[in-house]
Specification:
Blueprint: H1 23-50, E1 54-58, E2 61-64, H2 69-84, E3 96-98, E4 103-104, H3 105-129, H4 136-153, H5 156-162, H6 166-188, H7 194-198, H8 203-206, E5 208-217, E6 220-222, E7 228-230, H9 233-250, E8 267-270, E9 275-276, H10 284-291, E10 302-303, E11 307-318, H11 320-346, E12 352-354, H12 356-359
Antiparallel strand pairs: 1-2, 1-12, 3-4, 5-8, 5-9, 5-11, 6-7, 10-11
């Protein structure tokens, strides 16, 4: 039978000895309780890791956060970018964007990711039901994209956090690819009048002027030690003399790039420096002078607030910006029309449930 030895300690009142309780008498119940607590904590941790609540059900299939992780990651990455403009502290996520409901940016991102997931998964199911399948070319592209995502595009920490395996990414990108092809095919069938769209876009507002320029700064320069410093009036006069010398050659030189060698540190040459009537960095005075130029004309030396310029007009009637504006308007019209088609014709063909409670975890 175990016996505890009395430990002699410092004497106290009336030379009585303080006899500590045997360790075996106080530790056994405590150890049992502690062990039970550890088991509970481990089970809870494993449950939280292994059990992922269903976020939505589509056509009888349950989807948890792991199934939809790529959609959420895509949306969160966009909002993380926005957060970077606020210092990257995470405070942006908790900004209230709807005072009446108390909705925050974080809430909005979850809603957006959920809608994105529903949209793609439903379109994928619809595409498959209509006989769509991935082509060999699409499979090859997906394989290359997955390789790029895992090797360089997604940070390793995010790969581990979201459990982005090659198999998972291949599957999810396959769904997105097929859904997008189905969407593009349906958009091609939409009756959208491009001429009606053009009526709302003023060509003159988007008329583009393509110029090439040689310029020299009148506010900053690089000193002999490589430091960027403010220019003096004497420096500014020297800058004018430099560009004037180039100007005399520019009037008769076809290839302006030869006038500004690669090692040149003061002069800057731009082969194409385009602008429109409403979108330019130039002053109003310079803009009006350049817009009046004919193709092939070389301007005089123009003084702006920060630099001297020599300009040659390449094309004073480019439709590039106008074409982009029309294309953007057409894309917006197509997106709106397809969104309406999705809500009214495609989505009703599928059974789905979004579990809001699970999204609030």
């Amino acid at each position: 039978m175990n016996k505890s030895k009395k430990l002699q300690v410092k004497k106290v009142k009336k030379d009585r000895l303080i006899e500590p309780k045997p360790i075996t008498k106080i530790s056994l119940p405590w150890l049992i309780a502690f062990g039970a607590l550890v088991v509970v904590l481990v089970v809870a941790l494993l449950f939280d890791q292994l059990y992922k609540p269903t976020l939505m059900t589509i056509d009888g299939k349950n989807y948890n956060i792991g199934d939809l992780a790529y959609y959420f990651y895509t949306v969160e990455s966009k909002y993380d970018y926005y957060d970077s403009f606020f210092g990257g502290t995470g405070q942006y996520w908790d900004l209230t964007i709807n005072e009446e409901t108390g909705e925050t940016v974080r809430d909005a991102s979850k809603t957006e990711a959920t809608k994105l997931a529903l949209f793609n998964e439903v379109l994928y199911n619809q595409a498959v039901s209509e006989g769509y399948s991935l082509t060999d070319e699409e499979k090859q592209t997906i394989e290359e994209n997955v390789s790029a995502l895992l090797s360089s595009q997604i940070p390793p920490a995010d790969i581990r956090k979201n459990n982005f395996t090659k198999a998972y990414l291949t599957d999810i990108l396959g769904k997105i690819t097929l859904a997008d092809r189905y969407r593009q095919d349906r958009i091609a069938e939409l009756d959208i009048d491009i001429e009606e769209i053009k009526k709302d876009i003023d060509y003159e507002e988007y008329r583009q002027y393509d110029i090439e320029t040689i310029s020299i700064s009148t506010t900053k320069k690089t000193d002999d030690e490589g430091n960027v410093v403010d220019m003096t009036e004497e420096d500014k006069k020297a800058a004018y003399d430099t560009i004037k010398e180039v100007y005399e050659k520019a009037k008769t030189t076809e290839d302006w790039s030869t006038l500004v060698p690669d090692e040149e540190t003061e002069l800057t040459y731009k082969e194409k420096d385009s602008f429109t009537k409403s979108d330019t960095r130039f002053s109003e005075e310079m803009k009006e002078k350049v817009m009046a130029m004919n193709n092939g004309d070389v301007s005089e030396i123009i003084e702006e607030e920060n630099a001297y310029y020599i300009v040659r007009m390449i094309n004073n009637n480019s439709s590039e910006s106008y074409d982009i504006a029309v294309e953007d308007a057409l894309t917006a019209a197509q997106d709106e029309a397809f969104s309406d088609k999705f809500d009214k014709e495609i989505l009703p063909k599928h059974e789905y449930v979004i579990i809001d409670k699970a999204l609030k975890r």
